[in-house]
Write a structure and sequence with these properties.
Layout lengths: L7 H45 L6 H11 L25 H15 L6 E2 L6 E2 L1
Antiparallel strand pairs: 1-2
């Protein structure tokens, strides 16, 4: 209580520095997430192009192919609210990307092998 006290100006400077650090950290995290998303999209598009055997696409054909690739490959049911709990989430990501990321997380991070992955719907049992 009797020790040195920072002035109002010193406190303001400390908060400004702290705010800069937090903003910088948030920007770096946002950039890392965007880079990961772009990598997944590029990997996915590359895999589909390789399967189709058409690697000599023009830029316009490639753009059209990317639009086609963003459509879900499995059946999506209409949303029907079943539970009143917070067990749902909505996303603008392609469902195939979410499914791939979830399976990858289960296998790589959690060391859990899914017991069944549906080929018709977005349904995974583990």
């Amino acid at each position: 209580m009797k020790g040195p006290m920072p002035s109002q100006e010193e406190i303001n400077q400390m908060f400004l520095k702290r705010n800069e650090m937090v903003q910088k950290s948030m920007d770096e995290e946002r950039e890392a997430k965007m880079a990961e998303k772009n990598k997944r999209v590029n990997d996915r598009n590359t895999q589909r192009r390789m399967r189709s055997g058409n690697t000599n696409m023009s830029e316009e054909e490639e753009k059209n192919q990317t639009m086609i690739d963003n459509t879900p490959s499995k059946q999506l049911d209409d949303y029907d609210k079943v539970f009143s709990q917070n067990t749902e989430f909505f996303s603008t990501y392609n469902p195939d990307m979410i499914e791939e990321a979830l399976i990858s997380h289960l296998r790589d991070t959690m060391k859990i092998e899914p017991s069944k992955i549906s080929k018709e719907k977005y349904k995974i049992k583990f």
